[in-house]
């Protein structure tokens, strides 16, 4: 196993800079997820680690070795692609053992390794089949098996589940998590899917336009986002961000929402009276009641989404919309009048001009 270290890495294609001075430390044995929207630079960064793209500036280390100028085959990495990249004319056994064959390992040793990994991935009954005879999930497991048999220092995953249907994504995601627990190999995983990031990652790196917005554990980023981009990118349904204005409330301050509702903010580090802010509250922290509640946001239900396990309610207040989400089943109809009470401990406020988080003394 090996750690991965990026120091001030930048990448340009011609005059277009796509990676901006990225520094990142991935510990040995850690599962790190790179997440961001299309064009954020996450796949380019993964290809830079793999050696498939050179850097314009900066340095890369794997373990204690500087690998910035080394070709992929000398970096001791194995990559799993979203397109499986299997040789169609080779059997599962031959695909999984091909890299070992190129390395000159004895046939008996190759067969032993392939059989062991195939059993681990429940592919041992499929070893003589061709890729065209496999399902999408089976092909992706063969692709992972081909990486595992090499016993690399680092696994690199480039959106490996994007070609699978929803049910298979859940299954293979669980298999990847289980493999990491067993193998403890350093892994770098690229995805645009926040569910994959939150369930697989021990560390998440949020990227935007080739820059690192925030790095941390999944729940740290979810509960403690540094800006509106991170807050909005993680979480389904997305966080409510409501335009508001700071006003005094005794010795503390409050947010005046567009409908005139005053919501206490407590002591804030950096708020000034009259400042324009974005009032952030996640849907699961916006409690909905059919009864009048003092200090609540008054609204009418616009629409209800019921998935069986979850209910999401879109509510129209005066001048803004606010979403609530909860687990319990309730009879709710569009047009009904409701009160919405944000959990004071879960309110997050952001500067409207910069999008940066404004800290409160109540914030965890």
Automatic annotation (TrEMBL):
Family matches, as CDD domains: ABC_MalK_N
Domain ABC transporter span(s) in chain numbering: 4-234
GO molecular function: ATP binding
Pfam families: ABC_tran, TOBE_2
Transmembrane stretches, start-end: none
Keywords: ATP-binding, Nucleotide-binding, Transport
InterPro entries in the cross-refs: AAA+_ATPase, ABC_transporter-like_ATP-bd, ABC_transporter-like_CS, ABC_transpr_MalK-like, ABC_transpr_MalK/UgpC-like, Mo/tungstate-bd_C_term_dom, NA-bd_OB-fold, P-loop_NTPase
Family: Belongs to the ABC transporter superfamily.
Name of the protein this chain belongs to: Sn-glycerol-3-phosphate ABC transporter ATP-binding protein UgpC
Organism: Roseibium litorale
